[in-house]
Batch of 3 targets.
Target 1
Amino acid sequence: MERKESQSIGDVLRIAFQENCMQDRLDEMKAINLWPAVIGMENAAACRRPTVYDGVMTVGVPNASLRHELSMNRSAIRNALNSMIGKNSISEIRFIS
């Protein structure tokens, strides 16, 4: 690999992740980290940490009323996450007890 000009570490890592098909996993991790910002810190504290696999986010919500409220706003939450990530990384959100 011949270098023509210097690059920032961030640029090198971004290229490496894209070339090794790891960008999707990074976007899924961004969605997990953005979860509290989207639903609020208080609601996020009442949930278990989300997991994401193949674009499907699964969130444990022990409180039935909160689970129902989040379920009713599922598409808005998904749209907000995808908007903050900058692409459609989350295709579905599942709420479990």
Target 2
Amino acid sequence: GGTHGSLAVPSLEVWRNPGKRSWWEPLDQKRNEVDDEDPLVLQIRQFCNVIRGDEPPLVSGREGLETLRVIDAVKRSAATGERIELN
């Protein structure tokens, strides 16, 4: 788990404790609903809508970069068995 919460993949269940960290306080649990449609189709459709100016991007370039940093850290941690710090 992380400092403030955990995410289960692929179920997209999120557990977090919005207060002080504690072994005794219950965690908030939320399941994020996702469309059953092919994610690649949804991504390409949204990208085309952004290019045409029909809608704003769902995430910024900065958010995309941060996501790639997390994915890279997960892969490096899995390969080395070590904890990877992200600043």
Target 3
Amino acid sequence: MGLLDIFLGSDLNLKRPNFRYAPTVELSLGKCSLKFKNPDHSAMYPINVFPESFDLYDLGNYDPNGTGDYYKVFYERGWQLFGKSKKSRGGVGVVGNIFYFTEEFQKRINFKEIECFHDLLLFLCNDFWKSRTRNPEEITSEYSAFRYPIKHDDFTVTHINQTAWTSFTAGASGKPPNIGYATPLTKNHILYFEFKLEAFQSLDFYSPETNLKECSFSIVDEFISNVEISQS
């Protein structure tokens, strides 16, 4: 990197959040604890005050979901990515959720079985994203088909810090994707991080004129690589 790039910024080396020196957040969840890095956020993104402790089994801590389960947004942050002339070229937002499936669900689901866990994720994905899709014959040149997981092969399982994460992407063709990472916390709970990748000022997310795509994906990878779950 040249001196001008250091002072003026570069679209091929976007300025991004620093995970190495970011503080570590630790949340006590009763039967387990959760640790992850929390870099300084960008002001344009929503932010919430997350609890230092949280009773996973207290329904009063959750909001009802339309599918009969419950959820809690416990973390929300985002980071702008700056390039030449210190202009914002894009960003990455993340939302952390805990889903609670009460005992009545246990007759039908078993998170320890990966196929059963993936069946449930497919159901949740369809419930959330079905309204954003259209039949192929309805798609026009002004509309890109929104794609989301519809079969088990659309999932990838990766082991990170001794935890098996199921990841997937969703989004319109040619547009920045959403990336999801999910894992069971207990036999009743799912931990889910969703990352929203963005390009600003009509910038092509996939353009070789910036490293926006590479930078955005590396932020997602680095965030998840720092998530640690410990069981009591």
